[in-house]
Amino acid sequence: MSDFYEVGPAEPVVISTRVDKVSPKARREHNVRAAIVIAIAMFCLLPIFVMSMTAFKTRSDAVSAPPKLLFKPTLEGFVFLFTERALVPPARAQELLASDTTDLSLFERVALSSGQEITGPSDYVGRLKNSLIIAGVSTIFSVVLGFFAAYAFSRFDVPGKDDLMFFILSTRMLPAVVVTIPLFLMYRQFGLHDTYQGMILLYTVFNLSLAVWLLKGFIDEIPLEYEEAALVDGYSRIQAIFKIVLPQAMTGIAATVVFSLIFAWNEYAFALMLTSDKARTAPPTIATMLGRGGIEWSAIAAGSLGFLIPVAIVVFLLRDYLLRGVTFGAVRR
Amino acid sequence: MAQIELKQVEKLFGEKYAVKPMDLTINNGEFVCLLGPSGCGKTTTLRMISGLETASGGTILLDGENVTWHHPSDRDIAFVFQLYALYPHMTVRDNIAFPLQAEGMNKDDIDTRVSEVVDILRIGHMLKYKPGKLSGGDQQRVALARALVRRPKAFLMDEPLGALDAELRETMRAEIKALHIAQNATTVYVTHDQVEAMALSDRIVVMSAAEVQQVGTPAEVYYDPANLFVAGFIGSPGMNVLKGQLDGDVVRFLGNNNTLPLPARYRIPLLTTLDADKNVIVGFRPEAGTINADGSMQGEVYAVDMHGAYKLLHVNLGDVPDTHEPTIVHLRTDRMASNPMGSQLRFTVDPAMMRFFDPKSGKAILPSQTDQTDRQPVEVLSTTAEGQA
Amino acid sequence: MTAVQTQARTSNVQQQKRRRGLSDRAIINLFIWPTLLLLILWNAFPLFYSLFLSFTEYSAIARKEPVWVGLANYQDILTDPQMWKYFATTGRYALVTVGMQTLLGFGLALLVREKFKGSGLITTLILIPMMLSPVVVGLFWKLIYNPAFGFFNYLIMQTTPGKAPDMLAGTIARTPVPNLALWAVALVDIWMWTPFVMLLALSGLKAIPDYLYEAAVIDRASSWFQFRRITLPQVAPLLMIAVLFRTIEAFKGFDLVMGMTGGGPGDQTELIAVNLYRQAFQGQFRTGHASALAYIILIIIIAISNLYIRYLNGLREEG
Q1: Going by C-beta distance under 8 Å and a sequence separation of 6 or more, which residues neighbour residue A328?
Q2: In CATH, what number is assigned to the domain containing residue C84?
Q3: Are C301 and C307 contacting, i.e. CB atoms less than 8 angstroms apart?
């Protein structure tokens, strides 16, 4: 320690830093801090780790007590998640497995080895498709509408701009339940209950406030001069938007797309209340899988994992925009 | 108050030198400016003295004590930042009291100390405001007050007036000067503004390209620049420099027929320093030239700048043969003098104001110490010149 | 330039002139109104409609028109001790979750503020929970909390059957423990949303200019003094945004609880939003009554937001 104040660190310091930050004490603190953060991160990710493990366990492994850390991975959970099955006599199952294996798909073999025969795809497949369609289309709508509105708010002197922007933000702060009751009645009245149109429109509106705020933030940062130059060069306003603003706003659009997708993809409350079957999305379905024929934990974990992976990828890709996204564009940096 | 000593202090960023090894002693009560263009390492040097930047090598002594690896708070120096660095969420009073509160001084003493510096800087009326509401000049006064209130061993100032407009800068410059005279505190002041450096300092450290070019009083760096960089950097415009060749008692300039007589005290040093080709660079300040119909220098007026009190003539001595670039020298003339563009003129250069540089190293060639009379044997005096070096 | 080219360019310019006939005014209307219309139809209109319903006796599944009952629904709710209990539960839940999230989130932000090797990746990993669907989160925490084969009991080394705590049933060794289930749910909420507070706090910390700390070091302030006098006041506004968002969420969120306990055991985890859902969409569909409750929640949320905005304005006026 005392050496340090006489001769300094062993290596010359070739980065820009304060003297006290290269002291042995600072280095120790730095390492301790890093260790604590890593420990906390591991702890935070433990549930996700447990779930990923469960997704590859057999039905019996999943509910073994104490929980098994070492097990033979299987796709059973995914089979149960995606298919409807019927029990087959064990002898028949053996026979089928032993016979010409090329006819059997991977899923069929997994099902047979647990003594079941696939009779068709599960509800979940249809619900997943609903989720994809509703989340996808509503995202496109909200980004397109949001982009134009954001452009107008960013570039024009819209009367009552601040109030309108606040109104747009405040719609997002409303508890879903306050608007759900009248929406429920409204949807029933106009035949939108349990329809794609109804859910798509709903999620479009749900994401619009985010889209407008987020995109306005991004468009605000595109210098006005480019468009003005285009206008002077004889382009129309609309041409200028498509040729100048749109390409430069691409990162903002990508961020908005992903945030909208995640919100629509994860949404549970509206889906639970405003759909029952035809347009029901995946989240309420996973929740109700608990009810049917005992708790199939590996299937639930498989479903959750399927839900988690795209989101995790997106979090990683979007880490720079995360803050803007979760605060509706209000907080930059 | 303190003496600051830098011994072979250097700073590397990666492989690149931000400050090449430098030696500097700043005496107790002295006001020293680090002057140079941006990126020359002057701010890094200042920050190394403060401990805000870690030195890559060398030793920093404060009153003889090695503080190279001391925490900035253990050095007892004050730092005034270019952008003031006032705490935006605190009132002016709290900003000034902050260093004292950090020491845990009792409230009454803090009040006394704060009111003292507030009186010195005449900022009593703004104590309850937050810094954001003040003008740049007032913010810098508060920053100065925060530095003064601690009665530190030394003051380090990093372009404290850089963010102010020209008029305010002049006022604040005078205030800092008055403050220094009253407090007589050791001060290191970083600036890129030579006028500021000239006006404030006891000594100037001219830096460029991570290296100290010259350390000297304002008069020394102006009249006796150590090298071509200092010659060109100090003064606006800088010193005129012309490539020439020593020819007996005159210097002949390249590309034209101009000559200047060689001042006697330079004769021996030049002969001992220059290569066989006798190439030399001659420098003289614009005010050293006088328009004179019998002058040995001749050229064409290229442009005329009116500066109010005087005129600055750009005179083309003739195009350089290879590049066809004009060879321009600046001359200062009376504001009433009429030298229209394109007219020819002749001028002389005050021999006392002529300086000579070695074209290879760019370094100044110093004159013989004593006023040498002509025609003394070369051999005898060359030893004297060597003895000097 | 050839004549043909010139001509082409002229006609092009004319075309553009015609297209530019779309005035700025028209563009503003064209761009903004679709968005506003959707928001009004899907948010503003339902808001007023539910205000109307809150003054009526009405059930969405009964074939009867709403009957005006004035303030009866509100009176009902505000005089019902059961409802006050739910509000109290929500308040407790909000206090604990938001408090812990703020503490832990800010602490974490302070830890990851200075970069170390791999800190970017670690920070990103920590952020994953808040991007997950609350239902999915609820479900797999249900698995983790399972008294027999859940990981939670395994971790706290309480695996003896019959003696192990069943967090979501609110029992330890089959003995009910008051509020255990509520704290179990709160723990999940804290797990899920601490990263959110961390994210906001982190951006607040990164926005504090380095020179303030340099000035403080020069002014010989200790680390603790720097934290108290610079870090805390500088980061406070963003930390307050996080607190506001999380508090609002505690009053309106119900999906986490629905996924884990459905309000049980008994009404231990019956948060006000859960109860609202139950009134509106289960059993009798007490639509009018539920609307009144929804409005009360809305008023609470507006009140909280207002307090916060006042606090922020206070900061600004001082500044």
Answers
A1: A169, A172, A209, A210, A213, A214
A2: 1.10.3720.10
A3: no
- Structural domain total, chain B: 2
What is the rounded distance in angstroms from the CA atom of residue C43 to the CA atom of residue A15?
54
Q: Is the pLDDT of residue B378 over 60?
A: no
Q: Count of residues for chain B?
A: 389
Q: Does A22 sit within 8 Å of B54, measured CB to CB?
A: yes
Cα–Cα distance list, A285 to A119, B73, B213, C110, C259 (Å):
20, 62, 77, 40, 11
Our CA-based measurement puts residue A102 at a distance from the nearest CA of chain C, in whole angstroms, of: 36
Shared domain check, B196 and B300: no
Is residue C258 assigned to a domain? Answer: yes
Residues B176-184: contacts with CB within 8 Å, 24+ apart? B176/B144, B176/B200, B179/B120, B179/B144, B179/B148, B180/B31, B182/B120, B183/B148, B184/B1, B184/B29
- A-side interface with B, Cβ within 8 Å? 4-8, 12-23
Pairwise CB contact (< 8 Å): B12 & A22: no
Nearest CA in chain B to C226: B102
This complex has an ipTM of 0.84
Alpha-carbon distance A332 to nearest alpha carbon in chain B (angstroms): 20
**Residue C310 distance to chain B (closest CA, Å):** 17
| 3.40.50.720, 3.40.190.10, 1.10.3720.10, 2.40.10.120: CATH of A124-326 | 1.10.3720.10
Q: Is position C231 within any domain?
A: yes
Choose from A19, A44, A200, A265 for mutation: most chain C CBs within 10 A: A44
Higher-pLDDT residue of C179 and A172 is C179
Q: Of the residues B195, B217, B232, which one is the last residue of a structural domain?
A: B232
CB-nearest to B130 from C214, C234, C318 is: C318
* Structural domain span for residue B68: 4-232
- Strand, helix or coil at C187? helix
pLDDT digits (tens, 9 = 90+) for A143-168: 999 999 999 999 998 888 888 888 88
Interval B74-100 mean pLDDT:
93
Which of A5, A14, A23 minimises the CB distance to B13? A14
The model's pLDDT over C41-56, given as tens digits with 9 standing for 90+, comes to 888 888 888 899 999 9
**Contact A266/C134, CB-based, under 8 Å?**
yes
Provide, as residue numbers in chain A, all residues whose Cβ is less than 8 Å from the Cβ of B70. Answer: 5, 19
**Same domain as B114, residue B205:** yes
Same-domain pairing of B222 and B290: no
The predicted pLDDT at position C259 comes to: 80
Range of the domain at C194: 72-146+179-318
Chain A residue with CA closest to C137: the answer is A304
Q: Per the domain annotation, does C16 fall within a domain? A: no
Residue pLDDT, tens place only, C123-163: 888 888 888 888 888 888 888 888 878 888 888 776 676 77
